[in-house]
């Protein structure tokens, strides 16, 4: 048997056990490989989606601590609101403060399933996507309230499909981080609703003039239509469209069971009931210059918008307590305005307030865009829409129209001639006031000025008027206009002399005074007002009371001009070179600085910087400025508890010797009693002050007051030119202050100026300055014997003065003759001028 050479090969395979074996068996299946590939592709797609849409999205965590931009609210000295600084008017509320019907109205209008979805309404998205693709329009619609919060607060308002995807992602994240009420609170506080109102509470004021809690169902429904486009449903221009949309919202509320049929029918039948666009109620007329200066200071300190930090003026929600006294502000404003009108009366019409080209019937928008307005009495700004031979047709900012007849515009045109009516043309914006059922032209004064009132013990500015009307001229002449103060600088010059050895009784020669200023400038000779060469030696007091220039420059030269301008710098008037002309007011300064300087003199030389802001609180009530601020515990207690009285910390800086400052105030009381401001004497209260008239004259001044408040003003043209040779501080500026003071000081106690420790009051002869025996000061302003204030050991040697019988009889006869002369003048209807005595004494500067 032959051998069998066939062979059989065997391969043995040992299968793995466990997971490895299972994985191997699965890998052999085609569908497993397919699933793996699809998973990898899905991961790549997710990574790409994240890279494109989700990677750089903002964190929703900041919504937990989100604080919406809020306006800064300004309050007066009594705590009442007077203004707000806002680009977005908003009042922040919590969810519990929203009426339930309001919430339902917004849900019906914007997101019916808000409490059911998790941030995204898929059915709505599909419908909107189909609509956008079919009609080839931009991405719109189907945004839930949560998506709108994401858009408004986190990613912006870009119109694109990518933005919609980002909204959806953020909406999911927001729903995971916040509760539904928290989301609604963000939405209702943030949403823009037109008329510069953001959030529903601000919109309630803007459209209905009421708080949200006072609105009814129909008004809630109107607010709910506004997120779709406030301008589309403006109640003035698109009332029918607004009513139709409101009807839709009410019907949706009925369909969703939010209201019943009776409520629906009643609300649907109501008119819109909105109010005209109006100035926010916290903006008080007449405070424009003051609150604008506050705004400037706040911006310098905290910045303007949210990019500047959490306490910005237009987003930080600050609460600002100011020193504005609305009563004092009204008196200062009225007195200054009346004074400007008195001076300007009879000089003619100075032209229109502005001009704008009118296109067709669009005069209303043209007028509104000029932002020209008036808040003086019943005056109104009007745009001339048409002119014919007998009348002009006027349009007003509230949409009303009126007529101005030719006869009501017959004042001459200043410096041109002809009548104002002949010069008026369509597009002119003019000032008018009602006369019967028509209007008459009014002339806004071309001259201007400023008035500041300050509390001397603290430096708090109680009133500030920087011109005739802030709405016409925002330039604040109280703080921004640099003017020559004229003789109002003299009390500061003489204060420097008092600090350096002179006394109120020092004899100074009122005579020619010349100085050599170098080869280039030559010799400079000074003169008194009116060119008077002088009247010989007199006391310092007389020189101030009669405002003698020659005595002032002589005293400044004896003191040393470096010392004089050094005091001007310390007291805050300005930095000047040591030239004698600056002793007569040649240096430029502002009314606010001069008033503050006088408060320092009254306050015994202790300086408090003039302030408009008492303190600033953040939106949570914490005082953030001034730094290290502490409330005065017990200062506002209604009753004394028997413990030591609270005393606020005095942070003043001593810049003038206390006794020298009081001496100057005591001297300047004589300016009121027998000097250049005797027009104020019949106010019959302790008062000091000084008039000022600069060369030209181009400006006239008065600054002065009492221990309770000190005020100061000037009037002059913005481009300086002569006011007329008759213009003087005592005849124009002081009467303006008097009109203010009559009302401002009414009811205030007559408080004398308090002398500091060490002052010695001595009876002196008013003419010679020598102390006297045998006679006492009287109430007569021109009494020969007066009280004078001296520093210790500085009073002159005393002399004995006793009236002889002949002198007493002569004085009595002179007094009787003066009384008879005054009675005769009154009977003849004559009016004695306050300047008569001054002219006899050589005039004033």
UniProtKB/TrEMBL annotation:
Residue ranges constituting the Penicillin-binding protein OB-like domain according to the UniProt record: 349-447
Pathway: Glycan biosynthesis; Cell wall biogenesis; peptidoglycan biosynthesis
Source species taxonomy: Bacteria, Pseudomonadati, Pseudomonadota, Alphaproteobacteria, Sphingomonadales
Signal sequence residues: none
Span of domain Penicillin-binding protein transpeptidase: 449-739
Record field: transmembrane: 30-54
GO BP terms in the entry: cell wall organization; peptidoglycan biosynthetic process; proteolysis; regulation of cell shape; response to antibiotic
Protein's name in the database: Penicillin-binding protein 1A
Principal subcellular localisation of the protein: membrane
Cross-referenced SUPFAM superfamilies: beta-lactamase/transpeptidase-like (SSF56601), Lysozyme-like (SSF53955)
